[in-house]
UniProtKB/TrEMBL annotation:
Name this protein carries in UniProt: Rod shape-determining protein MreD
Keywords associated with the record: Membrane, Transmembrane, Transmembrane helix
Top-rank taxon, per record: Bacteria
UniProt entry tagged with the keyword Membrane: yes
Chain ranges passing through the membrane: 6-23, 35-60, 72-93, 113-140, 146-163
Length: 168
């Protein structure tokens, strides 16, 4: 079995279990809840099959929805984030993404951080918009997106630093 496929399977399952068993129990001040499973969407190989990535993203969100009994909002948020990912990669990394020479560990920190933040904000905004499903709650949607987004980006950056091959 290809090591990339194996590592993606482990990452997929590990992030689901970490999210469901530990991170979903964090609810600080009603706004802050980290969603580390977005890391799978961020780190999935860039030159892989886009249709397979969309399918895996849907199943990632659906798995979280099954455990949380949240009615498909995580699946929708993951699908939207996966769909816009090529545009975010092109925006954040430019020509290196277009030529398929992109390696996340060798990119400038600013580009990497913009990619992570944009992906998290899009995911969280869709997630909380579907959770509230009312424009009269737009301030609450934006608060939850901002605070959970900051916490999620912090967790993702720490995780990327800890598990990066560059730091080993």
């Amino acid at each position: 079995m290809n090591s990339s496929i194996f590592s993606n399977i482990i990452r997929f399952a590990g992030l689901i279990f970490l999210q469901v068993l530990i991170l979903n129990n964090i609810n600080f001040m009603g706004y802050v809840n980290p969603y580390l499973y977005v890391l799978f969407l961020l780190l999935y190989p860039f030159n892989s099959n886009q249709s397979l990535f969309l399918l895996l993203s849907f199943f990632l969100g659906l798995s979280i929805d099954i455990f949380e009994d949240s009615g498909g909002i995580h699946a929708a948020a993951c699908l939207v984030a996966a769909f816009v990912r090529p545009n975010l990669l092109r925006f954040s990394f430019g020509i290196s993404y277009d030529h398929q020479t992109l390696r996340l560990s060798s990119t400038p920190i600013g580009a990497r951080l913009s990619y992570v933040m944009l992906m998290v904000v899009i995911h969280h905004f869709v997630l909380f918009s579907l959770e509230m499903f009312s424009l009269s709650h737009i301030i609450l949607i934006l608060k939850k997106t901002l605070f959970s987004g900051i916490f999620t980006v912090l967790f993702i950056v720490i995780s990327m630093a800890l598990f990066s091959k560059k730091y080993r």
